[in-house]
Specification:
Shape: globular
Order of helices and strands: HHEHHEHHEHEHHEHEHE
Distance between the termini: 38 Å
Oligomer: single chain
Number of helices: 11
């Protein structure tokens, strides 16, 4: 017992304890981990991380699979997991063109989805999901992967049905549903200059219109040697230079 206690005392500090003030170290967890059935993973989470995101259980296909039907039970467990451990809880994601049920993009009577119907479905979803966790989820990835690699808006069903202001609408709905929550735009490959600069312009434009937008999320689909560290540094410097917070996942 004494040897075990000495070994524990000799353990290096967790990542969250080494982070400078103001920097949170986050982790994504799956449904089994949120339910407490993976003790090895949970020990790692508890030791190293102070922010938590769900892998899938707040994506539209999981939480709102059919019109008028929501399944909040797994998401409830995830939120309780984070709250009970004093972690900063992030909800992922409110609007995305993937992992969204086909019914969301289906028009009435077999017709093409129109703007009014698309906006109504988006607002209903955001009101229900964000409203349920008001004051319990600290920040939301509101819009995910809206940009192409060249910085233009991706041709998604949301863009086709609503128009370019669908991003603005999503942030407005999210803020109305929980004015106290932080709101983020999330994407990948933002280390590439064209996409990075477009994301910064998008966020600054939304902020100039008076919308709440607290930062940009970079999905780090990175390898050991790619992208170059210089490109990552330049991305972070550009975002900081624009006065934006960054979270890397």
């Amino acid at each position: 017992a004494a040897a075990l206690e000495a070994a524990r005392a000799a353990d290096p500090p967790g990542l969250k304890d080494l982070a400078p003030a103001g920097l949170r170290v986050g982790v994504a967890i799956n449904r089994a981990q949120a339910a407490g059935s993976d003790p090895v993973a949970l020990a790692i989470v508890g030791r190293h991380f102070d922010q938590v995101t769900p892998e899938n259980d707040l994506k539209w296909e999981r939480v709102h699979p059919e019109p008028g039907r929501f399944d909040f039970e797994p998401a409830d467990r995830f939120v309780e997991f984070g709250r009970s451990r004093g972690m900063f809880v992030v909800g992922h994601v409110l609007l995305w063109h993937q992992q969204t049920p086909a019914w969301v993009f289906a028009g009435k009577d077999g017709r093409t989805l129109d703007r009014e119907t698309a906006l109504a479905r988006l607002k209903e979803h955001v009101d229900a999901v964000v409203g349920r966790y008001k004051g319990r989820i600290d920040g939301w990835d509101v819009v995910n992967e809206a940009l192409e690699e060249d910085g233009t808006l991706r041709k998604t069903p949301w863009l086709e049905a609503i128009g370019p202001d669908y991003v603005e609408k999503a942030f407005a709905y999210a803020h109305a549903a929980d004015p106290g929550a932080e709101l983020y735009y999330n994407d990948y490959n933002l280390w590439k200059p064209a996409k990075r600069d477009a994301a910064i312009r998008l966020v600054l434009d939304l902020k100039a219109k008076g919308l709440r937008l607290d930062g940009i999320g970079e999905q780090a689909h990175w390898g050991v040697d790619d992208p170059p560290l210089q490109a990552i540094d330049e991305m972070l410097a550009a975002m900081r230079g624009a006065g934006l917070a960054v979270h890397v996942t």
